[in-house]
Amino acid sequence: ALDPVVARGLFERLARIAEERLGDAPRAIDAYARALEQVGDDEDLLAALDRLYVKTENWSALVEVLERRTNLADDPTERAAQRVRLGEIRETHLGDLRGAFRAYQEVVERDPANDPALDGLQRLGQNPELAPEVVDTLEGAFRETGSLERIAGLYDIRINLADTDGERVRMLQE
Fold this sequence. Notes:
Blueprint: H1 4-21, H2 25-39, H3 43-56, H4 59-72, H5 76-92, H6 97-110, H7 115-124, H8 131-145, H9 148-161, H10 165-173
Helix pairs in contact: 1-2, 2-3, 3-4, 4-5, 5-6, 5-7, 6-7, 6-8, 7-8, 8-9, 9-10
């Protein structure tokens, strides 16, 4: 049996040849995946798969790789950036708005001033099904950062979400 580190090196070399010299992304993906099987999660191998999945527009496989990269990241800023990217891919390429919401929400709960995550949540707030949860999450973030103007903007959304005129009037009186 081959030593896992040696096998990883061989599969990685095969992947680079397939990608760079042959332009064969599927073969490169397979080789990188086999290299990962040998050594477990490795940032360099996952980054290569990330690049190839973007190139081949394999969004569902990219989501899995991003989850793994996020779990490996030690730096909170890097982890947040990966989570935001995960949310954007779920939102724009997979139509998984609930999954996108969870990704953005996780970032905002740790860093209420993270503008890319806040922007993502605000986009999702246009969806009637997600709007109540989005507004609650945004309000928490805005209160934590002292963004009173932004909190006031959320009341307009809450009023539009109200089911009855009586509910709207009660909200306006608060």
